[in-house]
Fold Nicotinate-nucleotide pyrophosphorylase.
Amino acid sequence: MELREFLFKPLKDRSYSFAIRARENGILSGVARMKELAVELGLEVISVAHEGTLLVPGTAVFAARGDAEMVTKAEETLMGVIGKPSGVATATADIVRKANPVKVVCGAWKKISQSTKGELRQAVITSGAGLRMSEQPFVYLDKNYIRMFGGVAEAVGRAKLFDPDRLVVAQLRGEAQDIVEEARTAVQAGAGILMVDTGSLEDFKAVRAAAAADGWRKSVQLAFAGGVSAEELKNIAALGPDIIDVGRAILDAPLLDFSLDVESEDC
């Protein structure tokens, strides 16, 4: 007989009601996976809060009943599938608010494992940020594409050969050329979104000024990226980008704290 089986033997005919409650302000995410786990555990679900629920300390996000072993397994698993997503949703909402009215996207998904990517993507969507630079089909040329092709003109040109009408997004680092000249070259080659990914506001200002002076500011979208923090967003948004790409400031968000408490014995 295993330890838990031994401990719970006197309780085998009893049922307990419990609730999971928030311990801090935030936004709930991860609800779909929590529901799936509740079914797998065999719990009798009483209530579940909706994805995106605004939380304050004490807000109930889940209530159910089950035997002692079910309750213990629920405590070991259910909070784990809402803690990180809710933390990400909370951080995302704060960033979206600070960047308003500029569009915020989170594009750091190559650095996230497949096992958690789905839940974290949903958390970002729940709080109003985007996952993609554009909703229309596009070709994304990151720094390594540009390096391998020997420059942004060659990379964009190759993408345009595949489909002349497809939007091309170019990540600009100012490596082979000055950042302004790289931006001009990308536009001349047919890029429709330029992502200034240096983290330098001065670089963005220079590209924006060139866009205005050359007459392509209205036809090409400008994005800013590169270690963007929540504290910088107001200053970045004031420069007038069309898009701000935020990665770690969203995905490195701490867990949102929850607690599970048995609230009554039903029989």
